[in-house]
C-alpha cells in the first residue's frame, strides 16, 4: 500500500525548537504524527545505557529503527531528534535542520539547567554546523533545508512553509509513494 504522506526529520541542536516545530506542524497538517525520538526511545525500551559525560541516555539505534520502520512505511512521520544520519535515506522525504543564534541558544540551554560543559558542546556543534553537515552528507541535497528558529514569528513562518511543502508533496504524489522500505 503506498504511503500518502511524507516522512520528515526535524533536527538541530538541543534548544533550537525541534519539538515546538514538530508539534505545530502536526497540529496544522492532518495525518502527520510527531515522534520525539528521545521520549519514544524511553517508552519503547530503546535505551542502552547512560553517558555520564554528556548527561544523556544512549539510544539503541538498531532497536529504534526496527520499531520505527513499520511506522515509516505508513508515512506521515515528523521525526524530532538531535541527529538525523541514523535514519535510512529511503524513509525520508525532507530533512529540516533548525539553526539558532548562539547567544539565544546559550540562554535557552542555561534556562533548561544544562551544565556549562554540555552548553559549550552544543554551542560548538551549532557554530561548526555539525548537524547541517551530517544532513547534507547523508541525504540528497534537494531534500535538506536549513531554517532559522529564533522566536515565535520564525516558528510560525517555518511551520507555514513546511505545511505548504507537505501540501505540495501530496499534490505531486496523488497515488502516494511505494512503501517498500
User: So what's the oligomer here?
Assistant: single chain
What's the SSE pattern?
Answer: EHEHEEHEEHHHEH
The CATH class is identified as: Alpha Beta
Query: Any guess at the CATH architecture?
Result: 3-Layer(aba) Sandwich
| Count of extended strands | 7
CATH domain topology: Rossmann fold
What is the count of DSSP helices, taking H or I runs of 4+ residues? 7
Largest sheet: 5 strands, parallel
The CATH homologous superfamily name equals P-loop containing nucleotide triphosphate hydrolases
Question: Residue-averaged pLDDT, rounded?
Answer: 95
Decide which structural class fits the backbone: alpha/beta
Shape: globular
Based on CA atoms alone, the radius of gyration comes out at 16 Å
Strand residues, percent? 15-25%
Helicity level? 40-55%
- Determine the N-to-C terminus distance: 12 Å
Enumerate the spans where pLDDT stays under 50 for 5 or more consecutive residues.
none
The total domain count is: 1
Strand order of the largest sheet: 2-5-1-6-7
Subcellular location: Cytoplasm; Nucleus
Binding site for ATP: 15, 17-20, 112
Family: Belongs to the adenylate kinase family. AK6 subfamily.
Subunit structure: Interacts with small ribosomal subunit protein uS11. Not a structural component of 43S pre-ribosomes, but transiently interacts with them by binding to uS11.
Amino acid at each position: 500500500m503506498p504511503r500518502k504522506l511524507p516522512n520528515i526529520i526535524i533536527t538541530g541542536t538541543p534548544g533550537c525548537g525541534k519539538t515546538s516545530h514538530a508539534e505545530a506542524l502536526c497540529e496544522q497538517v492532518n495525518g502527520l504524527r510527531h515522534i520525539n525520538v528521545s521520549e519514544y526511545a524511553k517508552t519503547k525500551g530503546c535505551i542502552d545505557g547512560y553517558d555520564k559525560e554528556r548527561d544523556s541516555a544512549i539510544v539503541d539505534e538498531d532497536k529504534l529503527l526496527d520499531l520505527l520502520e513499520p511506522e515509516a512505511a505508513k508515512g506521515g512521520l515528523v521525526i524530532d531528534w538531535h541527529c538525523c544520519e541514523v535514519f535510512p535515506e529511503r524513509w525520508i522525504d525532507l530533512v529540516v535542520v533548525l539553526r539558532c543564534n548562539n547567544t539565544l541558544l546559550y540562554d535557552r540551554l542555561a534556562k533548561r539547567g544544562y551544565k556549562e560543559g554540555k552548553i559549550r558542546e552544543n554551542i560548538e556543534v551549532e557554530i561548526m554546523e555539525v548537524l547541517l553537515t551530517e544532513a547534507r552528507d547523508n541525504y540528497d541535497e534537494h531534500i535538506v533545508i536549513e531554517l532559522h528558529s529564533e522566536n515565535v514569528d520564525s516558528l510560525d513562518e517555518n511551520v507555514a512553509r513546511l505545511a505548504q511543502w507537505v501540501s505540495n508533496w501530496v499534490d505531486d504524489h496523488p497515488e502516494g509513494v511505494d512503501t517498500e522500505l
